[in-house]
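Each lists chain and fold; for instance:
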Amino acid sequence: MRYSKYDIMSLILSPTSGAIMASLVFSLFSPIGLGNATGLSSMLIATIFLILAPVLIVYYFEKDFDIEDRKRRSKPYLVTILCFLACSVTFWLLDSKVMFLLSLSYFFVTSAIAIVNILWKISAHASGMAGPTTALVFVFGAHLTPLYLITIITMWIRLKAKAHDTYQLFAGATVAIIITLSIYSLLW
């Protein structure tokens, strides 16, 4: 199968990229500390549960990193949600509030995306960038708002790749922003 430049850019700006960005920043620069975790252990746990396990699971089920058929996304979503739940519980047990809230946001956003996916295709790429960006802006302040440009670029690339229409992209970003903002507003 031949990949277009937009497919390659989609792979680079996948939901995994958002997890890497937020996990790295929170693990290294948390303004409230990491509880009983260290920066290294925090990154290791996030890498296993938020990054590697979801990627390997998607690839195991689909032998591809971009599942275009909405109906084939359910099983990978379910297992990924369990990874995010395990990550949330781990960080809760380590009393790492900053990482707990990040992984809890991933759990609820992905759960919502999976539920919507039952009836309608929605962009996990857009939510995978908008959610972590919202967490970073909430924790570190409005001066990080330009990070939303990454979400906009991701949405444009997904549109050019013909993976989603405009409504699916905006829905993915909006769901992630609303859920992440709600979690941080309630629990921060």
